[in-house]
């Protein structure tokens, strides 16, 4: 068995155990390459996992194209959550539509309105949530665990692709003809809102195209930064 096949089986085992141990499991699908791998695995294995995505209102057209392709390809419904329009309007009126370039504080406030607040609504009433985060994506993610209690949201959090490499993610996508964001073909390894995402040059860190004007230590939007308690997790055999 290849190393990738072993990781695929381990990932499916984590997903299956999450479903067994926590009712009402939901998958936060950012539509990045990792999350498309998880989408494919959830659909192929018929797992009882809800799936949602956050539409910030400033996503690239290519991301919307992928949303539509996902809808056509897979039977798993993708629920979309939008930011509170009143909060968006207040932010724009007080600071300007692109004020996130002016300071880390204003950028994080924008992220809170467009991502964090909708995420709280998406997770309300759920017992566990799943993400496509990997340890080697950024310096801020080196301490991730496969499973931990998310104290900020009051539910269990799973990162089934934790130890996958970027190369393994793309090997799976190509081998299984998984749809992906076409911006990846234009050197956008990590894709968020259009104004806060740019292409990178070969050799650059894969997250260097996100909020490129900030220090790497600050490069999180608030969705995955908070208090969490690791839980010893053994995948079912």
UniProtKB/TrEMBL annotation:
GO terms for molecular function: 4 iron, 4 sulfur cluster binding; adenylyl-sulfate reductase (thioredoxin) activity; metal ion binding; phosphoadenylyl-sulfate reductase (thioredoxin) activity. Residues 27-198 form the Phosphoadenosine phosphosulphate reductase domain. The keyword Metal-binding applies. Keywords: Cytoplasm, Iron, Iron-sulfur, Metal-binding, Oxidoreductase. It is found in: Cytoplasm. It is an enzyme of class 1 (oxidoreductase). This is Adenosine 5'-phosphosulfate reductase.
């Amino acid at each position: 068995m290849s190393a990738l096949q072993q990781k695929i089986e381990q990932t499916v085992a984590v997903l299956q155990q999450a479903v067994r141990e926590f009712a009402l499991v939901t998958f936060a699908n950012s539509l990045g390459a990792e999350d498309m791998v998880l989408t494919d695995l959830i659909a192929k294995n018929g797992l009882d996992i809800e799936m949602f995505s956050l539409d910030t209102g400033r996503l690239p057209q290519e991301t919307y194209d992928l949303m539509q392709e996902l809808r056509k390809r897979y039977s798993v419904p993708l629920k979309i959550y939008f930011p509170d329009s009143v909060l968006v309007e207040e932010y724009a009126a007080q600071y300007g539509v692109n004020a996130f370039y002016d300071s880390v504080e204003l950028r994080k406030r924008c992220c809170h309105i467009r991502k964090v607040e909708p995420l709280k609504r998406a997770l309300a009433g759920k017992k566990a949530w799943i993400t496509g985060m990997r340890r080697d994506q950024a310096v801020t993610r080196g301490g991730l665990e496969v499973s931990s209690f998310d104290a900020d949201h009051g539910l269990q959090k799973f990162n089934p692709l934790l130890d996958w490499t970027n190369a393994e993610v793309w090997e799976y996508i190509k081998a299984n003809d998984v749809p992906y964001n076409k911006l990846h073909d234009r050197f956008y390894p990590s894709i968020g809102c259009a104004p806060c995402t740019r292409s990178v040059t070969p050799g650059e860190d894969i997250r260097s195209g996100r909020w490129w004007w900030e220090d790497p230590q600050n490069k999180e939007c608030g969705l995955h930064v908070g208090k969490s308690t690791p839980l010893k997790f053994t995948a079912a055999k």
